[in-house]
Design brief:
Helix 1 crosses helix 2. It is globular, with a radius of gyration of 15 Å. The protein has five helices and six strands. The model has no long low-confidence stretch (mean pLDDT 91). It is α+β, with helices and mostly antiparallel strands. Strands 3-4-5-2-1-6 form a six-stranded mixed β-sheet.
Amino acid sequence: MESKELAIRLARALDAKKARNIRILRVHDLTTVTDYFVIATGTSTTHVAALADEADFQLGRQGVNVLRTEGHEGKRWILLDYGSVIVHVFTPEAHDFYDLEHLWADGEPLPESEWRQPEPAEPAEQQ
């Protein structure tokens, strides 16, 4: 799977579990470590763990396995490494403290319109 598509699928999995502040940054030209960062915020340590677990579960169902994870012990910053995409899931405090978007400000953000799925339309009322 192409790294951009992988990043989009991961962002969508996080979005489905109500992650906040989801960002996809293309960092391919800035580092040899990965092509994309997917950055998201949970509302609590429990939510952060649930977000990371859901992303891992959803991608695993699609045949994509995480290479390694870090941070499940403290649940303030969980990292999921998929090789070409690295997912960072933070608590609000950890997100503000580490501020990866600022550290990687030269990264190219993927517009939300390219990855966010539209809300399902409400069924028309019957008369």
